[in-house]
Specification:
Blueprint (H helix, E strand, L loop, with lengths): L4 E6 L3 H14 L3 E7 L12 E4 L4 H11 L4 E4 L6 H14 L3 E4 L11 E5 L2 H7 L6 E5 L15 E6 L10 E5 L6 H10 L4 E5 L8 H8 L3 E5 L9 E2 L2 H28 L2
Parallel strand pairs: 1-2, 1-4, 2-3, 4-5, 5-12, 6-11, 7-8, 7-10, 8-9, 10-11
């Protein structure tokens, strides 16, 4: 009897949680599911299977985990800006001989009325910011804030998931977790007299309202481009990720049948 497919989801996103639920619904007991979250995750999602919290210790540590736990497949459903984790997944899966898929969140598409200025890096965005506005809504995550520490002449409204000290010249913090509503975002920008929005090109629906609010108010958006996704197989929908998992299961079942036939033939 073939054992359940042990699948590791590198998660921490809404897409990863939805994927876990969809996988469990489609494959049931034929799947042994583990969702891995970074140690800084604020809340633990209620998802099927086991949840693992914390890092692996780089690519080598992840490869050791894949071997030790006898993981059969990995789906990288991390944030589009989690480039280091994705790079570790590429190298670890290659070293351990484990098939890997990337679930890529579709990017936002520029619409009529959008006033986007794009930057390749946070440092580049910080350098361009003073030319675009003086009261900036900064919604890029706490780890990216040091890039703006020396930006002079700009007052920041910073949205964080939890209170944290800021090393910014002039700043105020607002606490919130998506999804956010359009009207709420419009009120927030108006209340603080924001004249420029700084955002990552993260894609998805949970945080898009700030982009729509900027468009409604004719505000410029300083958009930091996302890094390129890792090389290798990638899909943009959960349905396609389910089909990939089914193909991995089928290939594993075929290999199991060949091994049984070979063993029987040698008796």
């Amino acid at each position: 009897m073939i054992t359940p497919l042990r699948l590791l989801i590198l998660g921490g996103t809404g897409e990863a949680a939805a994927l876990a639920s969809a996988l469990a619904e489609r494959f049931g007991a034929a799947l042994g599911l583990v969702s891995s979250l970074a140690g800084r995750t604020g809340t633990v999602p209620d998802v099927p299977g086991r949840v693992r919290i914390g890092g692996f210790g780089g690519a080598d540590g992840l490869a050791a985990y894949l071997r030790g736990e006898m993981v059969h497949a990995v789906i990288d459903a991390t944030h589009p800006f989690a480039a280091r984790i994705s790079d570790h997944a590429v190298r670890a899966c290659a070293a351990a001989g484990v098939p890997r898929l990337t679930l890529v969140r579709p990017p936002w598409v520029r619409r009529d009325g959008d006033r986007w200025t794009e930057a390749d890096t946070m440092g580049g965005a910080a350098a361009r910011l003073p030319s675009l506005g003086r009261r900036a809504f900064l919604a890029v995550g706490r780890q990216e804030l040091p890039a703006f520490a020396r930006t002079a002449g700009v007052r920041f409204l910073v949205r964080l998931l939890a209170p944290a000290p800021l090393d910014l010249p002039e700043s105020e913090v607002v606490i919130g977790r998506g999804p956010f509503g359009l009207e709420d975002e419009i009120r927030l920008l108006r209340r603080h007299s924001i004249d420029v929005v700084v955002a990552k090109a993260a894609g998805g629906e949970a945080t898009y309202a700030k982009i729509a609010a900027a468009r409604a108010l004719s505000l410029p958006v300083l958009m930091v481009r996302r890094p390129l996704p890792p090389a290798g197989p990638a899909v943009t929908t959960i349905a396609a990720a389910l089909d990939w998992t089914a193909a991995v299961m089928a290939a594993r079942g075929a290999a199991h049948d060949r091994d049984r036939a070979h063993t029987a033939g040698n008796r």
